[in-house]
Each structure stands twice: as structure tokens, then as C-alpha cells.
Amino acid sequence: MSSTPDQRPPATGFDETVRPQDDLFRHVNGHWLATTEIPDDRAVDGAFIRLRDEAEAQSRAIVEESAAADAAPGTVQRKIGDLFASFMDTERIEALGVSPLASELAAVDAVTDVDGLVRRLGAFERSGVGGPFAYWVDTDAGASENYVVYVTQSGLGLPDESYYREEQYAEIRAAYQAHVATVLELGGRPDPAGSAERVLALETTLASHHWDRVRNRDANLTYNKVDRAGLQDLLPGVDLAAWLDEARLPASAFAEVVVRQPSYLQGAAAVLTGTDVGTWREWLAWRVLHQAAPFLPAAFVDANFAFYGTTLTGAPQLRERWKRGVGLVEGNLGEALGELYVERHFPPAAKARMEELVANLVEAYRQDIEALDWMTRETKDRALEKLSQFTPKIGHPDTWRDYSALEVDREDLLGNVRRAFAFEVDRELAKLGAPVDRSEWFMTPQTVNAYYNPGMNEIVFPAAILRPPFFDLDADDAANYGGIGAVIGHEIGHGFDDQGAKYDGLGNLRDWWTDADREEFGQRTAALVAQYDALEPPETPGQHVNGALTVGENIGDLGGLTIAHKAYAISLAGAEAPVVDGLTGPQRLFVGWARVWCGKVRPAEVARRLAIDPHSPPEFRCNAVVRNLEEFHEAFGVQPGDGLWLDEADRVRIW
After folding, report:
1. What is the widest separation between alpha-carbon atoms in the chain?
2. Alpha-carbon distance 609 to 617, whole Å?
3. Per-residue DSSP letters for 397-410?
4. What is the mean pLDDT of residues 74-89?
5. pTM, whole model, 2 decimals?
6. Domains contained in the chain, CATH given
7. DSSP-assigned letter for residue 251
8. C-alpha neighbours within 13 Å on the C-beta side of residue 59
9. How far apart are alpha carbons 319 and 42 in whole angstroms?
């Protein structure tokens, strides 16, 4: 059924060949989709990427100014400039060839037995080369007032364990084996073709013990606290003390750890002790060369991109070197760059406006929880308690990271990379035994993104995302609530998604649900999983969204937009929403939501993301959410027979 005139956006800027009732995503973004080509140096383009381009250009100006300036030794400006300059000195990089790796490759060749292998794996923990398992430091999900070491599976060169076993990835496996051979040959290693075959076989065996991504999402299954003896029991035949010693990790750091995948460690130990040491040497040489490839001569860089860029994502062209150089600074001196970025690009008024938006979103969640007809009073009270303990962080940290201990040498690129990794290892380990620093940020201010951290029950919005189309100081409130408001709601929603809801307001894994409410929540979640399982991106016929993998993000999207709509109503304080350019307030809010997800993705990248990404493709983040909302049906007069109509009985509403 056609909508009435006041239920239809004006022609300007919209694709009038597509009705919003049938496809909001293409109605709002269709013109852009039809006229925009994804740049050759990327696999994705859209609203997020354009904002990242802007932040990247602003960061470039800061980095290049730092590189050209004669800043005092030891200052962050000097370190930023020297790190960038070391990456841009291609003449020196070409002249050095693989010589910066000589000592590491010699150490690999010196491995003759399992004990030597374990020691070498430990030593590589400080350089970023890594091994078949990895670790990091975070708040203890069972006691959030403490830090603890988490141990997790690792060791694969392909994106996911499914790439080693599913037939649909057979061509990628063949391309990967060829790529490993190419890199080993460039590195001067003997028998590169045979080595590559054995490396793939070794990783295939490791992958057979990996947990899949759906299982890895489960906060309960992946919380397995063991003491040092318990960890050693999971690694029979592996000299854990020797590994710790070579990694220069204090024994106290591993006195008690959380093992995310216990069965994987047992399997990996068997592979470590049961595979020919010669094969492990080949794998280690590959890992050394692979990790260093972006910082080696052009032949390595090009080979690395040919597989990890073109083959896996479909991007035909390597990003310009300055962009990769800015990325290197971002990854290793991110907060130092962020401090300079904030000085130039984050107005205080934006933080004040965001605080108002966040307050309205939290109030909307409070009202929504109170009004839920499926949740008991007992669980509601606990949900409200958790909501009251949310900590919002907006723009940037109040205290900036201290990089004084990091040494940067303008003439030593690979050394800079290695030292930066070791610096971060030491910074993380220093947390153990210290009070939890709840002021720490896990994204830089110049990052276009946002996050929810269940261990600290916090929602975080870096400065760089607080720009159009997400947030505009001069924009209509409806557009801001459809953009950044829904993002705020999304992040709050993670505190109440299928995994976030397992944590209490202090960040502890604690079941605060009644059995009946948990069962009802599970049924609603299962209905959402089924909805997304049926979705098939047009770029990858025959491949579907994994509803179980994406359910947490989908709950975040659904709850976020629902609550953003309610928060917008709160902001009106009882006044009638104005009509602007023929659009009602709710219509503008949903248009703002659609604009946020404007994007195109190359087919190869769509396929890769379907396997590993907990987020649904952009068009589904728009359309699959709104079809569940009564508010959307009302705003646009959606009727049975329309493309986005969903029978009321089939609509999922969790929050």
C-alpha cells in the first residue's frame, strides 16, 4: 500500500525508485550506492570509512608536522615524528633487506628439540611474533576489582579456524600456501614450497583444536580460572617455567590465570610435542617473516598485500605509504597522537551536548525497563541497578598515557616496532597487583568507533565519531538521535545483550536473572537469531548471516534504536516534534539511522566478515532492525505487503 504524502521523505537526496516502506537502506542511500565506487585501496566504503578518512587526514597533518619539526629528544612529538620517518625511509628499508631479522631467524634455526622450541616461543612473546597460544591482561570477570592474565588460542595465519576445514575456502587455502612459499622464498629460506605445505598442515592441526567464534562468545564457557599447576596440567610436556623465563614474565603473573579454551591448550600441547621440530622451525620462520613483512622491502609488502589484501578482502590496491605510516603511529603511540588531535579537533561543546544525549538515553532505558511486560520485578530492580552504575566516557581520557619509557630511533624501523610491542607488554604486566584503573581507555580519541566494556560497565565514545552523520552540533535533534543516539543506545544495549547481561553493574560475571526471566530472554534472543540466519547478502549468494555469531551486536542495534526513539521523545519534553523538509521527527530519526549504515563492501570482504565478524552487513543493520519496530511501522505507515512489513507476532522486542 502506498504511503500518504506526509509519510514519505522528499525526493531531494533520496532514491525515489525505492519506497522507505520496502527498503529504508536503499531509499535513503540508493543514490550514493549507485554512483559511488569503492576506492581501490580498500574493501569497504561508507559513512564510517569517510569519517575515518577525515580523522586520518587530520592525524597525518600532526604526524608530518612532528616528523619535520626539530622537537626535543624524548618528547612525544619527537617520538611520533621519528617513528613515522623511520617508516617513510624506503631507501634505507630496501638497503637493509631482511638483515634486521638475521638474529631472529638464526635463533629459529638453532632450535633442535621441544625444550628449545618452547624457549624460542617464549622469547618471541616480547617481539610480537607470537605462538600457538597468547595472553593479555584485563579485569577479572569473576572479581572485577582485580587484574588477571587471560590465556587464549592463537597460531593461525588465516582469519578463522573455519578457513582450514570448510570447502568454500579451498581456493583461499591454496592461495595461502602459495603465499607462505613466496614469503619464505623472499626470506631466503630453504625448500619454500615444501615448507609452506607443512606450515599449512601444522596450522590445520592447530585449527582443529580451536573453538569456533560462536563458542568463543560465551562469557561463561570462556571463564576457566586455574592456578599455575592447573595451567601446567593443560600443557603436558611443555616447560611452562622455561616459556615464562624466556618471555621475561614474572612467575607471579601466571600464579592464577583465566584460560578461555582449556581443550585447545591440551590439543596445542600435543601438537607442540608431537610434531617434528623441523616443521616447527619452518612455521617459526614464516611467523617471523610474516609479522615483519609490512616493515620490510617492497617485495615483502606487495606479497603480503596480495594475499591479505586482495585475496581475502578483494581490495585491488595497496594503501598509500603515508596512510600506513599514520596507522603505525596510531598503533604504537596512539594516545600521544590523540592528545595532539584533541587539542585541534574536539570542541568542549561537543562533550556537553553528548552528556545531554547520554543522560536522555539512560533515562529512556530506565523507563523502558520499568515498562517491560515480560520481566519480573526482581530482575527489573537488578537491571536498573546495573544501569545506574554505567560509566560514560566521552571524547578522550582525562589522563594521557606516559610513553617516556619507549625508545624510538629514526633509523631503526623494525627495532621501533619490536620495542613498542615490548613496551606494551610491560605496561600491561604492570597492572597485575595494582588497583584497577577505571580511567583507562581502550580506543584512541581519533578512532571512529565506540565500545562497551562489560568488565568496567562503561560506554565509551571517542572524539572522532562525534561528527556527521553520527553527531552534528548544528543538526536537528531527530538526526542526532537517529545517529549517535542510536550508537549510545547500542553500547548501553551491550550491557544487556546475550553476553553482557551476564555481568553485574560492577563488571562481575554474576547471574542476576530469575530463571523465568532468563528463559524468556533466551526465547526472544533465539527468535532474533532465526531472523538473521535467514538473511543472505546480495554480494554473496548462498551465504547467510550467522545469527548466533552476530546476536550480541544485533541486540545492541535493536535495543539502541528502540531506546534512541524513546530518548528523542524525552528530549521534546512534551512538545510536538517539528516537521522539517516534509519529514516528521520520527521519520528524520529513522533516516538518520539509515545514513549511519550507508556503505558498500566488496564480495570477498563480505564473505570474510560473514565468517568472523560479530556485526551484520550494513544493509541488515539498517533494515533488519527497523522491521521489528512498531515505531518504524507507524512513522512510515508500513502495511502488509510492504517489503519491511513484519507481522506483529514475529517482531522481536527485547528492551
Report:
1. 78
2. 8
3. -SS----TT----T
4. 97
5. 0.93
6. 5-36+347-390+472-650 (3.40.390.10), 113-276 (1.10.1380.10)
7. G
8. 32
9. 7
Task: Classify 447 as helix, strand or coil.
Answer: coil
Residue 9 has pLDDT above 70, yes or no: no
What pLDDT is stored for residue 251 in this prediction? 87
CA angle 390, 393, 397 (to 5 degrees): 140
The C-alpha cell that represents 19 in the structure block: 519506497
CA–CA separation, 298 and 118 (whole Å): 32
Contact 567, 363 (CB under 8 A): yes
Q: From CA 246, how far away is CA 520, in angstroms rounded?
A: 50
Amino acid at residue number 221: L
Q: What is the pLDDT of residue 119?
A: 97
Tracing cell 542526532 back to the chain, one arrives at 480
Exposed/middle/buried for residue 33 (C-beta within 10 Å: 0-12, 13-18, 19+):
middle
Q: Where are the beta strands (DSSP E) in 553-630?
A: 599-601
Query: Residue 598 corresponds to which cell in the numbers above?
Result: 550507508
- Cβ-in-10-Å burial (0-12, 13-18, 19+) of 437 comes to exposed
User: What does the pLDDT average to over 116-138?
Assistant: 96
Tell me if 655 sits within 8 A of 557, measured CB to CB: no
Of the candidates 355, 359, 379, 358, the one whose C-alpha atom is nearest the C-alpha of residue 369 is: 379
Grid coordinates representing 492 are 548501553
CA distances from 423 to 13, 77, 129, 333, 428 (A): 49, 18, 15, 11, 9
- All cell numbers assigned to 497: 545483550
